[in-house]
Automatic annotation (TrEMBL):
A GO cellular component annotation in the UniProt record: cytoplasm
Family membership: Belongs to the GTP cyclohydrolase I type 2/NIF3 family.
Xref: SUPFAM superfamilies: NIF3 (NGG1p interacting factor 3)-like
Chain sites annotated for binding a divalent metal cation: H76, H77, D114, H246, E250
Entries under Pfam families matching the protein: DUF34_NIF3 (PF01784)
Full protein name: Dinuclear metal center protein, YbgI/SA1388 family
Keywords: Metal-binding
GO molecular function, one term: metal ion binding
The keyword Metal-binding belongs to this UniProt entry's keyword annotation: yes
UniProt source species: Psychrobacter pacificensis
InterPro entries per record: DUF34/NIF3, DUF34/NIF3_sf
Amino acid sequence: MSQNTTTEPSTNSISAQSLTQFCDEYLSASAFKDYAPNGLQVDGGRPIQRIVTGVTACEALIDAAITDNANAIMVHHGYFWKGEPAPITGLKGRRIRKLMQHGISMIGYHLPLDAHPVIGNNAKLADVLDMTITGALYPNESHPVGNIATCTPQSADSLIAKITQALGRTPLHISSNYEHHSDNNAKTTANSERVIKRVGICTGGAQDMIEQAAIMGCDAYISGEISERTTHIARELGIDYFACGHHATERGGIQALGEIVAQEYGLPVTFVDIKNPA
């Protein structure tokens, strides 16, 4: 578990409702139809003087907030996902009970934090990979959750090295360069001299957007997870795929949002990275 404190302690405070209003407006949260509620999900009932940020509102993050004497946690993955059981029991009940017992509010932003053009997960990932976002994977979306970026022309090996350095983990790479058989059983090799300069990006569990990336003429597609089908899709569409980790690709947005809040309100905000290999 690593921590990064963005400001020194202060006597400033803000209500959970006011903090949520600021974040809602900054992220244009009302523009998104999401899989979970965005904004204030658990009201701890106390003024907020210290904040902990993290990717997921797991019990380990809550424990870190308690240790830090924080009054709020801000996350990308919160609670109350579409389709999950409604009763607050078991694991979910234990997490929420611990938040309430310690007066800790929990604020979560999912798609709005993926899509923000400056501090969103896609934008921050593009930044650390020296890429420039130029458009949307789905051009008709007003707030795209998937993007297209350009970079200095490079090989897959070069991009793997850059991802590894930026995220602290080696991506799983599915190369478009593979042997397949044509109708007459002659072996051919696809894209043996692949140069990557146009890249689709959508962090987290967006591996199935790879087909759209291919439609949009991308040389490669970057996301967090990989499914069994993704390998075949990448090879057959002739596009390189880099699975860089759901957690690893989504640290940037919430950390950046915490820094914005710290600057806006003069509050101590600590990013806590609960290690996750997935």
